[in-house]
Specification:
By secondary structure, this protein is α/β, with parallel strands linked by helices. The protein is built from four helices and seven strands; from the N terminus they run H-E-E-H-E-H-E-H-E-E-E. A four-stranded mixed β-sheet has the order 4-7-6-5.
């Protein structure tokens, strides 16, 4: 009999890192939508929300989640089902406070609270530099190294940095 709680599964998932931003876990990103524990037959099912539909890392995330669950709970990988749900879209509001802080540790600014994509397009979003914490920043390019990022420049420390766009 599999005697697990959703919280125990969530603890394991908190160790599964995002392939693009390794300081963030899939839990920090707010990707975990649901966890089911089945006693007969013994199995786990995890439902995730993709941050972007076309994200090339989705298959890698699925493999990492299956592997982590199988290893942590002594299950065969076939006993760990991982699915991506499209019923609800991921938004940057799903980032946890811990995730927002870990973005800064990575050198990327989190999306400003309350800002919209329109604020980025217009250049009116206030983005704080993750390196020196100055709000004296300028949008350099709406398109960074990935679809979810924009490129900014800090006038205080004179460093470029990326910011996760609000979605």
């Amino acid at each position: 009999m599999l005697e697990l709680s959703g919280d125990q599964v969530l603890e394991v998932l908190a160790e599964v890192k995002d392939p693009e931003i390794p300081t963030l876990s899939i839990v920090d990103l707010g990707m975990v939508e649901g966890i089911e524990v089945f006693e007969e037959p013994k199995a786990l099912a995890v439902t995730l929300i993709p941050t972007f539909l076309g994200c090339p890392a989705l298959d890698l995330i699925r493999v990492r989640v299956r592997s982590a669950l199988a290893q942590a709970f002594g299950l065969a990988e076939g006993q760990c089902r991982v699915e991506f749900s499209l019923k609800r879209a991921w938004t940057s509001q799903r980032l946890t406070d811990k995730g927002r802080a870990r973005l800064g540790d990575f050198g990327m600014a989190p999306p400003p609270r309350g800002a919209s994509v329109a604020d980025f397009v217009e250049g009116s979003a206030t983005v704080v530099c993750p390196l020196c914490h100055s709000p004296q920043t300028d949008l350099q390019n709406l398109f960074g190294s990935a679809a979810c990022r924009a490129l900014y420049y800090c006038k205080s420390c004179r460093n470029p940095f990326e910011v996760m766009k609000p979605i």
